[in-house]
Automatic annotation (TrEMBL):
UniProt entry tagged with the keyword Nucleotide-binding: yes
UniProt similarity note: Belongs to the ABC transporter superfamily.
CDD domains assigned to the protein according to its UniProt record, in alphabetical order: ABC_MJ0796_LolCDE_FtsE
SMART domains per UniProt: AAA (SM00382)
Keywords: ATP-binding, Nucleotide-binding, Transport
Gene Ontology molecular function terms on file: ATP binding
Positions of the ABC transporter domain: 5-234
Top-level taxon of origin: Bacteria
Protein name according to UniProt: ABC transporter ATP-binding protein
InterPro entries according to UniProt: AAA+_ATPase, ABC_transporter-like_ATP-bd, ABC_transporter-like_CS, MacB-like_ATP-bd, P-loop_NTPase
Gene3D superfamilies per the UniProt record, alphabetical: P-loop containing nucleotide triphosphate hydrolases
Keyword Nucleotide-binding part of the UniProt annotation: yes
Length: 234
């Protein structure tokens, strides 16, 4: 099977000279199509940096990052913007919804820019929020807002869905529902999901776990039988 993602000798340094911080130092791994991957690590380990590089939000300093045949290091700013728009869905810890647009309009923002988009109401239905289509974000709970953010990301029908601490602002039960949506999305659609977290207790739900420490890969392992989210305890 060809790899969906190949990362070779990836380095990301912020700043220059005495102020330089190397957040990713010689990172190497591959991800196969359809895997749900968890990137684990302590605060400051370099996880968000890696996610930003994979999502084309930040350029790499050196090395090779290839996603679905696209070599990200070869893209200029314009190329990276197109890559982000067409191929990547993002979910952040604090939802990042547009407050003066309704739920369905927030989802349409994403579906309008993608080539192979899902209908916005279909995406809202997938996260169980079709009845809230005409509400504004402030009228929804935190968990519901995160579900809108996931609907927005999956509406693009992205090859790659990236989530940075997506349950960080949610209570336990709501967090579980959110993780279930990610597991369903990757296993039902065969798409790739990468979740960045410091919570090692959720790692058994993943097909693939990459642990980062001090900007390097500390361990890289695969679960043959990932735990269904409903059975996870943390
Ligand atoms: N834009 C930036 N400019 C300078 N240094 C940065 C920048 N972004 C991140 N860093 C540094 O790079 C290192 C890794 O940060 P990163 O955010 O990738 O870690 P993380 O594992 O995601 O941490 P957290 O879980 O706390 O978000 C840290 O030392 C951080 O201070």
């Amino acid at each position: 099977m060809t790899n969906f993602i190949t990362v070779e000798n990836e380095v990301k340094t912020y700043g220059q000279g005495a102020n330089a911080v190397t957040a990713n130092q010689d990172i190497n791994f591959t991800i196969e199509p359809g895997e749900l991957t968890i990137i684990l690590g302590a605060s400051g380990a370099g996880k968000s940096t890696l996610l930003n590089v994979l999502g084309g939000m930040d350029s790499l300093t050196s090395g090779t990052v290839k996603v679905n045949g696209v070599e990200l290091g070869d893209l200029d700013q314009r190329g990276l913007t197109t890559y982000r728009r067409k191929q990547v869905g993002f979910v952040f810890q604090f939802y990042n919804l547009v407050q003066n647009l309704t739920t369905v309009e927030n989802v349409e923002l994403a579906s309008e820019i993608a080539d192979d988009a899902m209908d916005a109401v279909t995406a809202l239905t997938a996260v169980g929020l079709e009845k809230r289509a005409n509400n504004f974000p402030a009228q929804l709970s935190g968990g519901e807002q995160q579900r809108v953010a996931i609907a927005r990301a999956i509406a693009k029908n992205p090859d790659l869905l990236l989530a940075d601490e997506p349950t960080g602002a949610l209570d336990y039960h709501t967090g579980k529902k959110i993780l279930q949506l990610f597991q369903d999305f990757s296993h039902k659609s065969g798409k790739n999901v990468i979740i960045v977290t410091h919570n090692s207790l959720i790692q058994s739900m993943a097909d693939h776990v990459i642990e980062i420490a001090d900007g390097r890969v500390k361990s890289d392992s695969r679960n043959e039988t990932p735990t269904p989210v409903a059975q996870l305890e943390w």
